[in-house]
Design brief:
alpha+beta; 21 strands; four-stranded antiparallel β-sheet; 13 helices
């Protein structure tokens, strides 16, 4: 059915070419795939919640293009010792209600998470904080119970947003922030409207209003763009659809290098996959260039690390596995996995029903067959698939990190021995004492060079041991009507391009 829709897409677009209405000159319409689950920045964890929250709320610090941290609400900060962080706030920030933002609001935001009174999946992120002080209106002091170098990252835009003092559990229904846009209205599974905050302390947005419309179906998203009832979307179309829309005179496609990352996970507790030589051979057997070209329309780049290349801790010299089936065969021969009737052994890959994921699995099946591995595919609805993966009940699976790989503290979550599934996210059950030591070093020191050295070595070891096979970094692909101008896409692929976007009417 999907192939039929893609084949008919140019025809459908043509039929709608004369049905364009007159777009509102003051409103940009952005197409999103689903409604945000909760616009309280203390609670919402899904991509739509976090990206829209970045427009509505301010954090203590912000991320730049290389994922370094820069001033935001905090115009400066000091770390007199590893257990004490002192933030000095701007004096000119107001909430959308007109109320002045002070240290009392920052303390309330953190205390509501630390106290347990607000039920939030984000609460554990801040468990290194033992207490919060607000000695005056413009100073916030955080006292930690243990050194935690990633604390600042968890106080940055996307992960954190300051809410007004007294904000309760239902705050997400009518959120009041201090960001460049203010909340107007939301209707579940239909739309969400925000307007420019004309009193914003920073550079003012050019757009007067943004209406986010929820369109779950990809073909419908493409049609909304073509007929002009939608102005822009980002990372929400397949390569086939993007290439079809590139031929439309009223649309533009902007592509930039992104940070979202795809990988193959190998269960190191498995009888066969516990042998590092098998894992290395599989990595050599995958022709990533071919997949990127034919399956992804060249809208991705090969990866050699969980961290994106723009990151300050990214190691460009970490081991890579170029396509080399001869080396893969030699490794397996030397390891004693002889072929019998054309095959050495059988492995099973679990996948979801997502069409792109299933096609990728079929390609991998073919490529591994060339080195004598019989890869069986098992497809499940996403909820079942993800439940199995979360428990470590698989041999091989493929997923992606969207945003989570922008902080090197991810290494602790996915590669530390103490982070084994199902309680944590080390679903490969990978364990290496040196990696554990480097994770502790990276988390406990605030010296950027020491952290960088620790993470450089860690990437080299993990790439050698191959609990993950690095696949690629997805490009950010933004499709928009020509009336939308002055777009600047960040590597993270979030919605901050709306801060500079303009409408030419």
């Amino acid at each position: 059915m999907r192939k039929l829709l893609l084949a008919l897409l140019p025809f459908l677009l043509l039929q709608l070419s004369c049905s364009s209405g007159h777009p509102d000159p003051n409103t940009l319409v952005m197409i999103i795939e689903s409604s945000p689950t909760n616009l309280d920045p203390r609670i919402g964890l899904d991509a739509q919640s976090e990206r829209i929250d970045e427009l509505l709320f301010d954090a203590l610090v912000r991320r730049d293009e290389r994922f370094n941290l820069q001033p935001s609400l905090a115009e400066r900060w000091e770390i007199p010792d590893p257990l004490t962080y002192v933030f000095h706030l701007r004096h000119d920030v107001h909430f959308h209600s007109g109320q002045l933002l002070t240290s009392r609001d920052v303390k309330w935001t953190l205390d509501s998470l630390l106290s347990g009174k607000l039920i939030s999946p984000k609460a554990s992120t801040y468990n290194s904080i033992s207490s919060v002080e607000a000695p005056d209106d413009w100073t916030v002091i955080l006292h930690l119970n243990k050194p935690y170098a990633s604390l600042l990252w968890n106080l940055a835009d996307g992960a954190f947003g300051v809410v007004p003092y007294g904000s309760a559990g239902n705050f997400g229904q009518q959120p009041v922030g201090s960001g460049p846009f203010r909340f107007v209205s939301a209707h579940q599974d239909r739309d969400l409207i925000v307007e420019r905050n004309d009193s914003y302390w920073g550079p003012k947005a050019h757009l007067q209003r943004v209406r986010f419309i929820v369109v779950p179906d990809e073909t419908t998203r493409a049609l909304e763009l073509r007929k002009g009832s939608g102005d822009v979307l980002i990372n929400a179309l397949t390569a086939d659809t993007v290439h079809a829309l590139q031929r439309e005179p009223n649309l533009r496609v902007d592509t930039t290098e992104g940070s979202n990352y795809a990988y193959i996970a190998l269960n190191t507790r498995d009888t066969i996959l516990k042998d590092v030589r098998v894992r290395q051979a599989i990595a050599y057997a995958i022709d990533r260039k071919q997949v990127i070209h034919y399956l992804m329309g060249d809208m991705a780049r090969e990866s050699n690390s969980v961290l994106p290349p723009q990151h300050w801790a990214y190691n460009p010299n970490a081991k890579d596995y170029p396509y080399d089936p001869a080396t893969a065969n030699r490794i397996l021969d030397e390891a004693g996995y002889a072929k019998k009737n054309g095959y050495r052994f059988q492995l099973t890959m679990k996948t979801s029903t997502d069409a792109t994921t299933r096609v990728l699995a079929a390609v991998l099946q073919q490529q591994l067959r060339a080195i004598g591995i019989d890869l069986q595919l098992r497809t499940f609805e996403f909820a079942t698939f993800y439940a199995d993966v979360s428990k470590g009940a698989y041999q091989i699976h493929s997923l992606r990190w969207i945003g989570g790989n922008q902080d090197p503290d991810l290494f602790e979550s996915v590669f530390a021995t103490e982070s084994f599934a199902p309680k944590r996210q080390n679903r490969t059950f990978y364990s290496n004492p040196r990696v554990d030591d480097l994770i502790r070093q990276g988390r406990s020191t605030i010296d950027p060079e020491q952290r960088k050295c620790a993470y450089y070595e860690l990437q080299e070891i993990v790439d050698r041991d191959v609990p993950y096979i690095n696949l690629w970094y997805f490009d950010n692909v933004l499709v928009h009507t020509r009336r939308v101008q002055n777009l600047h896409i960040s590597p993270a692929g979030n919605y901050d391009f709306l801060n500079t976007a303009e409408l030419a009417n």
